[in-house]
Predict the 3D structure of the following.
Amino acid sequence: MSRNTLYDNVWEKHKVAELPNGQDQLFIGLHLVHEVTSPQAFGMIRERDLEVAFPDRTFATTDHIVPTTPEGRERPLVDDQAENMLQALERNTSESGITFFGLDGEKQGITHVVAPELGLSQPGMTVACGDSHTSTHGAFGSIGVGIGTTQIRDVLATGCIAAEKQKVRRIEVTGSLGDGVYAKDVILKIITDLGVGGGVGHVYEYGGEAIRTLGMEGRLAVCNMSIEGGARAGYVNPDETTYEYLKGREYAPSDDEWDEYVEYWESIRSSEDAEYDDIVEVDADGLAPMVTWGINPGQVVSVDEPIPDLDAMEDDTARKAARKAFEHMGHSPGDTMEGYDVDVAFLGTCTNGRLSDFREAARVLEGRHVDDGVRALAVPGSETVRTQCEAEGLDEVFREAGFQWRRAGCSMCLAMNNDSLGAGEVCASSSNRNFIGRQGDKDGKSVLMSPAMVAAAAVEGEVVDVRGYDEVAN
Amino acid sequence: MPVRNKAEIRRVAGTGVPLRGNDVDTDQIMPARFMKEVTFENMGKYVFYDARRDDDGERNDHPFNEYRGANILIVNKNFGCGSSREHAPQGLMRWGIRGVVGESFAEIFEDNCKSLGIPAMTTDRATVEELQSFVEADPDAGLELDVESETVVYDGREVGVEIDGAMKEALVEGTWDTTAVMHSNMDRVRETANGLPYVEDR
């Protein structure tokens, strides 16, 4: 059992009581709400004549169903169901006194992009949201967990969830990342090493040289995909990088309170003598850009290496799953992902929809143009990110390169809005899930990769190795 | 279908539906485009919607087409991974599923099952495969999940399975609706909140 880890420390500070079934009642310090998973929960508390217990600790935005074209956002939305969901959230938040970053506001965006950039997500918090990518907020040294709608009801009504402590796995990422290799590659490597179910029952603590030297946006990308490895939560201990990022943000502590907060943040870090349930080492030295070759986020390979050999797989179930992936993706034995034809390039999402992601992609696109056959979308993770990008002139780089420059939303990550993958189309995507049908048509194919890799794939019309690509003559 | 409250769930009996394969994600169970409804009412119709259809839209031989009327789902490893959407277990429940047995479950999915009063029980791969084969050989044969004694009864046999302790306690005692029990602790919730530097005292 773990001891003196950040997870243990934060849990203890938020534990309210032990419940009759042996679970802990855990206080949730930040509850994030969006339009898709919350309307039923508001309905449930209304039925029981209960009110929102901590409206000032609850923040809402709309992301999953929103159109990302400027004209598509005119109200009422063309899609009746989407309009209906949006109205339900507007009504629910205004009736409950919950702050809502609405569609027409400057702060709207994807929940897991908005809360960090506004300084809402902070070290030593518990964060919950009806969305599995709530693990993202662990980048600050908080415990972020995705919950179901009935649990949203619990958080709305009581400010708490019923939960059991998980095991803590330390993931020590040694070495440093080479040019053209990013946080996304690190997390894809971790998921393929440990498996998509490897983290079930565990929380991941990411540390080591390669994590320590990452900026906050890289750490957010790593923690975001903890859930793709089966770990409901993942975190990085807070440090100067964290504090520097937070300072001056809208909801971050003021200068007057700053020292008091830092004291708290330092107090919840994993201590030197912390004990973990297990420790895993991953070497970032020499890591190549990673891409998915199959239909789950653990089916990952270095861009320049052959995809796995079916016949070499000893486990029958794994081989069957791989064969299904081969058929879906149209692979032949010995193929590499390098050279795999691409029809759509998609930049954005709660994994990689932040300023640094667009900067890296723009660096690749500067002076280049998207391949004729490629439909390319750049979708900022929030309106704040869009404004930042536009202030730097990045939107022009994307437009000139042939990308559509959009407004903020989840967009083609999950095709609950106007953006979706057509039958047979292949998408080079900076998102987090390559499940069949995830991005649209069930015959669509998703290849997950870093934003720089997406940009290079857009230009070439096929998956390429972005390392050294900058130097290649156009 | 009414929400079942305060109900003790000690056993589930009926017929089975075997669904082979690891890492079945919630996007498969409930494609995102069906989540634009603000209630769970219709989710039973959409469960495994794409997987159950051929390219031309015709029903295929997916287990959820072949084993209609079943109420015990038998799955392999890491079932329900991916998105947190409760729409997935809601869809399974409204289709008729009352209990699940498998090699392992994704955590959020398992929590959602508990929220809905659906026992999610685990056992080793050999036992799961045997159960799947048993149902495939005789789809009308009866099965029984006994939550209290942690067993599956089938074919005149009784096999031990496991269930998370908290889930078992909640189901057997009928306390799987957590809002009421947690709401009775609101004074202590405020006390805990007031002890945190980032929450304003109230």
